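[agent] plan:
  1. take the single chain provided in the ticket
  2. run structure prediction with default settings
  3. attach structure tokens to the ticket
  4. add a short note for the reviewer (M.T.)
[agent] executing step 1
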Amino acid sequence: MVKILIADDDAHIRELIPLFLSNEGYEIEEASDGAEALSIVENNRIDLVVLDIMMPKVDGWELCKEIRQLDSNIPLLMVSVKGETGQKVKGFQLGTDDYLTKPFDPIELVMRVKALLKRYQIISSQTLMLGGIELNRRNYQVIRGKL
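[agent] step 2 finished; step 3 output follows
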């Protein structure tokens, strides 16, 4: 099951986003500040992070940088009231994959999450099929005769 971390200090956002994402079958972890979010990423398998910028302890900018240093293959979706172009550019420069401005339509957030997961699944797939040959990058096996 896909596990998504919601990192936002706003309790209403931490209620709203999981409501929509859990209806899609995703498992949800929540963090109310950046330090808690970083600890969750360090100690758990997280498949995607939705993070706010303005959080206590560790802000979203720093959290984004820290997550990228830990694992460059975790999709990051920033959700923030900071909608100016300069803020979005800063987010992308720090490593976010997508940026959504509050207030947002929860359905749009779900669609963006699905798109990010689809894109990253292709990149991080451990098995590659070429004709009748299967290449497993995890255990370095090559199996001939698979179609």
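[agent] step 4 note for reviewer: The mean pLDDT is 88.
[agent] ticket updated
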